[in-house]
Design goal:
Length: 294
């Protein structure tokens, strides 16, 4: 089977247009047509894509939908394999770091990495946890230091659980709640909220707490910068729900424990692909986190 034919097929399903697909690959339209015919012949002359009449929209058959799903998976895995093979000879460590997990855990091993001359071998990519998992799957990074709001159980990954942390509420020192040490989430119904964008765990944690408390939070600002969240809370623009380790005696900010039974927690992980074969240097790097997580 020609993997190029699979690529043509997947793009045709996405574009629903032979001309657009041909233009995407820089080939002639008959090239795409012949590729689809080869695939249909390969699978016992089962129609994959039909067109009821000239100029009508293309229709993907049930068999076509099955092939599309499998073909996309095959092509993605081939791309990941190619990326892994290209980087196999390299001894650098391509590490993805999410904001909170990075601030919490990376400093714990930084000195050891410096002493062993590994710090300069790091290629750091910063992003939200969900994006880092995608980058792992695609082979763009070798390992990720990230946080999730649920235990991470996926056969595509090897996971090292470093810690589990609760979420807390932060308010300005000038907020009335700054006189208290704890609060129920339901008491925050009338508050303005500052939160991280949907790529980060804090947005999902806020949804979980709000769902249990049965109210929709008044989110007045979303940002991808943790420092911006704290700056706005410090100015009393709103309150925020942050994982415990993201707040470390920040000036002008008061932290409150939540009295509710937690609907979710923050799980800190070091994650690699299940197919990842580390070099000695990369394995040593992973071992450092394993020792710190004990």
């Amino acid at each position: 089977m020609n993997t190029k034919d699979l690529a043509y097929f997947c793009q045709l399903v996405d574009h629903k247009n032979y001309t657009a697909t041909a233009k995407y690959f820089g080939v002639s339209q008959p090239t795409i047509t012949m590729a689809i015919k080869r695939l249909e012949k390969e699978y016992g002359n089962v129609p994959l894509i039909t067109q009821p009449y000239p100029r009508a929209s293309l229709v993907v058959t049930r068999a076509g939908k099955v092939l599309y799903q499998q073909a996309c998976d095959i092509l993605n895995r081939l791309q990941t394999t190619q990326t892994e093979v290209l980087h196999a000879a390299e001894d650098s460590i391509r590490l993805g770091i999410s904001p909170v997990a990075g601030v919490t855990w990376f400093p714990k091993v930084a000195n050891q990495l410096l002493k062993t001359n590994l710090l300069s071998d790091l290629e750091v990519h910063e992003a939200g946890s969900q994006q880092l998992l995608k980058d792992l799957v695609n082979g763009q990074i070798d390992a990720a230091l990230l946080a999730t709001v649920q235990p991470l159980k996926d056969p595509e990954f090897k996971t090292l659980l470093l810690a589990i942390h609760p979420f807390k509420i932060i308010v300005s020192d000038h907020h009335p709640l700054a006189q208290r040490d704890a609060v129920s989430f339901s008491e925050l119904r009338q508050e303005r909220f500052i939160t991280m964008t949907n790529h980060y765990i804090h947005a999902r944690a806020l949804e979980a707490y709000s769902r249990v408390a049965q109210f929709t939070p008044n989110v007045v600002y979303r940002t991808s910068e943790l420092s911006m969240v704290k700056a706005l809370v410090r100015k009393n623009v709103g309150v925020s729900l942050l994982v415990e380790t993201a707040v470390d005696q920040d000036l002008g900010i008061h932290t409150l424990a939540l009295t509710d039974a937690p609907p979710t927690l923050s799980y800190m992980y070091l994650v690699t692909r299940a197919s990842f074969h580390p070099t000695k240097k990369q394995a040593f790097f992973i071992q450092l986190f394993r020792e710190k997580g004990r």
